Amino acid sequence: MMRMMKEGQLLCFALFLLCLIGVIQRGEAYKNYTVGDSLGWFDNLAKPGVDYGKWVSGKTFSLGDFLLFNTDSNHSVIQTHNFTTYSTCDSQGDDNIQWSSIEPNSTEVLPVTVPVPLIKEGPTYFFSGDYDGEQCMHGQKFEVNVTHGQGLPPSLRDNPDLAVSPTAANAAPGPANPDAGDDSTPDVISSNYDFSHPKKVPSEDSPSDGEEDGSKTKSNVASVVGSREVFLVGFMSGVLALLI
């Protein structure tokens, strides 16, 4: 009887450790999402293969995550929390946030990367408002539901710049070729990342300090998570061995 009770207690403890591994995996880092992956942020006339509904599917977006829009100066990034504004592609909505305020110019098209932090829970909508909403009507829009996750990091929670509408200063020069994607930006970044000043995306030929820091951050996060997992899995294996 005592042996059965002991085995039950050990089994419960092992299951607790298994759950703890899942918590560690979920709680270590915020994320950067490159919108559209290698296709970038364009309407389906410019890039026939874009499907932002498909891109969003299966992803979990949380407070403190960043969306990175790789596009050009002829496509804009507008955020709204108003579904009517979004569904009508209304770039003049009162509650719109214009993250890229560069006016379209067909004679000089420049690559641009626009980083957008997710700072409010619930549904939020993105679209391009250039050319009277034509780009939005041709597929350049999507919606995401932002969950609480870990909550905002201090660099976003206490950032006064986010209390007003962003300006063109938030738009960083992008890769020379938007098709190349955002290989220099880590998919996972640690909670002490400087969210208030997103790094400019360097070219592949000239890696910058920001790129090196991003790579180190990703490596550090992976090593921390990995070492804890190895310890917990090894410990749990030892506990389970006692039950055999």
TrEMBL record:
Keywords: Signal. Pfam families: Cu_bind_like (PF02298). Residues 31-148 form the Phytocyanin domain. Residues 147-221 are annotated as: Disordered. SUPFAM superfamilies: Cupredoxins. GO terms for molecular function: electron transfer activity. It comes from the Eukaryota. Residues 1-29 form the signal peptide. GO terms for cellular component: plasma membrane. InterPro entries: Cupredoxin (IPR008972), Phytocyanin-like (IPR039391), Phytocyanin_dom (IPR003245). Residues 168-179 have a biased composition (Low complexity). This is Phytocyanin domain-containing protein. It comes from Opuntia streptacantha.
